[in-house]
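Blinded run. Sample ID left blank on purpose so nobody reads anything into the name before looking at the predicted structure. Input follows.
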Amino acid sequence: MSRAEPLEGLRVLVTAGPTREAIDPVRYISNRSSGKMGFAVARAARDAGARVTLISGPVNRSTPKGVWRVNVDSAEDMQKAVLQYVPDTDIFIAAAAVADYRAKEVSPRKIKKAGDGLSIELVRNPDILATVAGQPEPPFTVGFAAETENVTDNARAKLVHKNLDMIAANQVGHNQAFDQDDNALTVIWDEGEQTLPLQSKRSLAMALIGSVARLYRSKRAKGERA
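Blinded prediction complete.
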Protein backbone atom coordinates (compact mmCIF):
# COMPACT_ATOMS: atom_id res chain seq x y z
CA MET A 1 0.00 0.00 0.00
CA SER A 2 1.32 3.40 -0.95
CA ARG A 3 2.12 5.85 1.83
CA ALA A 4 0.24 8.43 -0.23
CA GLU A 5 -2.99 6.45 0.18
CA PRO A 6 -3.29 5.55 3.88
CA LEU A 7 -7.01 4.80 3.60
CA GLU A 8 -6.77 2.66 0.46
CA GLY A 9 -9.69 0.24 0.26
CA LEU A 10 -11.52 1.64 3.29
CA ARG A 11 -15.06 3.00 3.36
CA VAL A 12 -15.44 6.38 5.03
CA LEU A 13 -18.72 8.05 5.95
CA VAL A 14 -18.64 11.81 6.66
CA THR A 15 -21.39 14.15 7.85
CA ALA A 16 -21.19 17.88 7.16
CA GLY A 17 -23.05 21.16 7.42
CA PRO A 18 -25.93 22.22 9.67
CA THR A 19 -29.39 20.76 10.12
CA ARG A 20 -32.63 22.71 9.88
CA GLU A 21 -35.41 22.04 12.37
CA ALA A 22 -38.75 23.37 11.13
CA ILE A 23 -40.96 25.63 13.25
CA ASP A 24 -43.52 26.32 10.52
CA PRO A 25 -43.40 26.30 6.69
CA VAL A 26 -41.33 29.51 6.74
CA ARG A 27 -39.07 29.35 9.81
CA TYR A 28 -36.56 26.92 11.22
CA ILE A 29 -33.88 26.50 13.91
CA SER A 30 -30.34 26.12 12.59
CA ASN A 31 -26.74 27.19 13.21
CA ARG A 32 -23.81 28.90 11.49
CA SER A 33 -22.11 25.82 10.03
CA SER A 34 -21.08 26.31 6.40
CA GLY A 35 -20.05 22.71 5.75
CA LYS A 36 -16.54 23.81 4.70
CA MET A 37 -14.75 21.57 7.20
CA GLY A 38 -16.85 18.49 6.55
CA PHE A 39 -16.51 18.83 2.77
CA ALA A 40 -12.75 19.29 3.17
CA VAL A 41 -12.61 16.12 5.29
CA ALA A 42 -14.54 14.18 2.64
CA ARG A 43 -12.13 15.42 -0.05
CA ALA A 44 -9.08 14.53 2.06
CA ALA A 45 -10.41 11.03 2.76
CA ARG A 46 -10.96 10.55 -0.96
CA ASP A 47 -7.41 11.71 -1.68
CA ALA A 48 -6.18 9.20 0.91
CA GLY A 49 -7.70 6.38 -1.12
CA ALA A 50 -11.01 5.85 0.65
CA ARG A 51 -14.44 5.31 -0.86
CA VAL A 52 -16.32 8.25 0.62
CA THR A 53 -20.00 8.88 1.28
CA LEU A 54 -20.86 12.42 2.36
CA ILE A 55 -24.16 13.12 4.15
CA SER A 56 -24.72 16.86 4.07
CA GLY A 57 -27.18 19.23 5.63
CA PRO A 58 -28.43 22.21 3.57
CA VAL A 59 -25.38 24.02 2.22
CA ASN A 60 -24.54 25.55 -1.15
CA ARG A 61 -21.31 23.67 -1.80
CA SER A 62 -20.03 21.58 -4.70
CA THR A 63 -19.60 17.87 -4.08
CA PRO A 64 -15.96 16.75 -4.23
CA LYS A 65 -15.29 14.69 -7.34
CA GLY A 66 -15.55 10.96 -6.68
CA VAL A 67 -17.56 11.40 -3.45
CA TRP A 68 -21.11 10.04 -3.16
CA ARG A 69 -23.33 12.73 -1.62
CA VAL A 70 -26.63 12.39 0.20
CA ASN A 71 -28.56 15.59 1.00
CA VAL A 72 -30.66 15.85 4.16
CA ASP A 73 -32.43 18.63 6.01
CA SER A 74 -33.21 17.79 9.65
CA ALA A 75 -31.37 15.88 12.37
CA GLU A 76 -33.83 13.02 12.08
CA ASP A 77 -33.24 12.92 8.31
CA MET A 78 -29.49 12.81 8.92
CA GLN A 79 -29.80 10.01 11.45
CA LYS A 80 -31.84 7.89 9.02
CA ALA A 81 -29.24 8.39 6.29
CA VAL A 82 -26.32 7.65 8.62
CA LEU A 83 -27.93 4.43 9.89
CA GLN A 84 -28.55 3.38 6.30
CA TYR A 85 -24.90 3.71 5.30
CA VAL A 86 -23.00 2.98 8.52
CA PRO A 87 -23.23 -0.86 8.32
CA ASP A 88 -20.90 -0.71 5.30
CA THR A 89 -18.54 1.82 6.91
CA ASP A 90 -15.02 1.37 8.29
CA ILE A 91 -14.58 4.95 9.55
CA PHE A 92 -17.32 7.40 10.53
CA ILE A 93 -16.41 11.10 10.84
CA ALA A 94 -19.19 13.25 12.27
CA ALA A 95 -18.28 16.79 11.22
CA ALA A 96 -21.87 18.03 10.91
CA ALA A 97 -23.23 20.60 13.36
CA VAL A 98 -26.44 18.78 14.23
CA ALA A 99 -29.09 20.80 16.08
CA ASP A 100 -29.51 19.51 19.63
CA TYR A 101 -33.20 20.42 19.76
CA ARG A 102 -36.25 20.68 17.49
CA ALA A 103 -39.75 22.06 17.91
CA LYS A 104 -42.07 19.59 19.61
CA GLU A 105 -44.91 20.66 17.34
CA VAL A 106 -44.40 22.04 13.82
CA SER A 107 -47.14 24.40 12.73
CA PRO A 108 -48.66 23.48 9.34
CA ARG A 109 -49.26 27.19 8.73
CA LYS A 110 -47.09 30.27 9.12
CA ILE A 111 -47.22 31.45 12.73
CA LYS A 112 -48.68 34.96 12.75
CA LYS A 113 -47.28 37.74 14.91
CA ALA A 114 -49.47 38.27 17.95
CA GLY A 115 -48.68 39.73 21.35
CA ASP A 116 -45.27 40.62 22.74
CA GLY A 117 -43.80 37.13 22.96
CA LEU A 118 -43.89 33.61 21.61
CA SER A 119 -43.01 30.36 23.33
CA ILE A 120 -41.94 27.25 21.42
CA GLU A 121 -41.46 23.97 23.25
CA LEU A 122 -38.29 22.16 22.18
CA VAL A 123 -37.42 18.48 22.47
CA ARG A 124 -34.08 16.71 22.13
CA ASN A 125 -32.92 15.51 18.75
CA PRO A 126 -31.35 12.07 18.35
CA ASP A 127 -27.65 11.87 19.22
CA ILE A 128 -26.33 10.47 15.94
CA LEU A 129 -22.72 10.20 17.08
CA ALA A 130 -23.56 8.33 20.29
CA THR A 131 -25.96 6.06 18.40
CA VAL A 132 -23.24 5.01 15.96
CA ALA A 133 -20.55 4.60 18.64
CA GLY A 134 -22.95 2.56 20.78
CA GLN A 135 -23.63 -0.10 18.16
CA PRO A 136 -22.52 -3.69 18.89
CA GLU A 137 -19.86 -3.50 16.16
CA PRO A 138 -19.32 0.22 15.50
CA PRO A 139 -16.99 1.65 12.90
CA PHE A 140 -13.95 3.66 13.97
CA THR A 141 -15.81 6.74 15.15
CA VAL A 142 -14.54 10.33 15.07
CA GLY A 143 -16.52 13.19 16.60
CA PHE A 144 -16.16 16.97 16.45
CA ALA A 145 -16.54 19.35 19.40
CA ALA A 146 -17.18 23.05 18.82
CA GLU A 147 -16.61 24.79 22.15
CA THR A 148 -16.56 28.39 23.37
CA GLU A 149 -14.58 27.57 26.54
CA ASN A 150 -12.60 24.76 28.19
CA VAL A 151 -12.16 23.26 24.75
CA THR A 152 -9.86 20.34 25.58
CA ASP A 153 -11.61 19.35 28.83
CA ASN A 154 -15.08 19.44 27.27
CA ALA A 155 -13.91 17.50 24.22
CA ARG A 156 -12.20 14.80 26.29
CA ALA A 157 -15.36 14.42 28.39
CA LYS A 158 -17.35 13.96 25.17
CA LEU A 159 -14.81 11.40 23.91
CA VAL A 160 -15.27 9.30 27.06
CA HIS A 161 -19.02 9.78 27.50
CA LYS A 162 -19.83 8.80 23.91
CA ASN A 163 -17.19 6.06 23.68
CA LEU A 164 -15.47 7.58 20.65
CA ASP A 165 -12.17 6.54 19.11
CA MET A 166 -11.13 10.14 18.45
CA ILE A 167 -12.48 13.67 18.69
CA ALA A 168 -11.45 16.87 16.92
CA ALA A 169 -12.08 19.97 19.02
CA ASN A 170 -12.03 23.61 18.06
CA GLN A 171 -12.73 27.00 19.61
CA VAL A 172 -15.73 28.79 18.15
CA GLY A 173 -16.86 32.38 18.49
CA HIS A 174 -16.61 35.67 16.63
CA ASN A 175 -14.67 35.05 13.39
CA GLN A 176 -13.59 31.61 14.61
CA ALA A 177 -14.28 28.31 12.85
CA PHE A 178 -17.84 28.76 11.54
CA ASP A 179 -17.95 29.99 7.93
CA GLN A 180 -14.20 30.76 7.98
CA ASP A 181 -11.63 29.47 5.49
CA ASP A 182 -9.09 28.68 8.25
CA ASN A 183 -9.37 26.67 11.42
CA ALA A 184 -7.31 24.95 14.12
CA LEU A 185 -8.01 21.66 15.88
CA THR A 186 -6.96 19.74 18.95
CA VAL A 187 -7.23 16.05 18.11
CA ILE A 188 -7.78 13.85 21.16
CA TRP A 189 -7.86 10.08 21.70
CA ASP A 190 -7.60 7.79 24.72
CA GLU A 191 -3.83 7.83 24.97
CA GLY A 192 -2.91 11.24 23.67
CA GLU A 193 -3.65 14.40 21.77
CA GLN A 194 -2.26 16.43 18.90
CA THR A 195 -2.50 20.14 18.13
CA LEU A 196 -3.13 21.09 14.52
CA PRO A 197 -2.39 24.84 14.25
CA LEU A 198 -4.38 27.45 12.36
CA GLN A 199 -4.32 26.74 8.62
CA SER A 200 -6.68 26.40 5.69
CA LYS A 201 -9.47 23.93 6.25
CA ARG A 202 -8.26 21.93 3.25
CA SER A 203 -4.78 21.40 4.70
CA LEU A 204 -6.24 20.93 8.17
CA ALA A 205 -8.51 18.18 6.86
CA MET A 206 -5.52 16.43 5.28
CA ALA A 207 -3.66 16.52 8.61
CA LEU A 208 -6.73 15.22 10.45
CA ILE A 209 -7.17 12.35 8.00
CA GLY A 210 -3.51 11.45 8.53
CA SER A 211 -4.12 11.22 12.28
CA VAL A 212 -7.30 9.20 11.77
CA ALA A 213 -5.50 6.75 9.48
CA ARG A 214 -2.63 6.23 11.92
CA LEU A 215 -4.86 5.55 14.91
CA TYR A 216 -7.19 3.34 12.87
CA ARG A 217 -4.29 1.19 11.67
CA SER A 218 -2.77 1.08 15.16
CA LYS A 219 -6.01 -0.09 16.75
CA ARG A 220 -6.62 -2.66 14.06
CA ALA A 221 -3.08 -4.02 14.45
CA LYS A 222 -3.69 -4.44 18.19
CA GLY A 223 -7.01 -6.13 17.60
CA GLU A 224 -8.93 -3.31 19.27
CA ARG A 225 -12.20 -1.75 18.10
CA ALA A 226 -11.51 -0.74 14.51
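Unblinding after everyone has recorded impressions. The mean pLDDT is 92.
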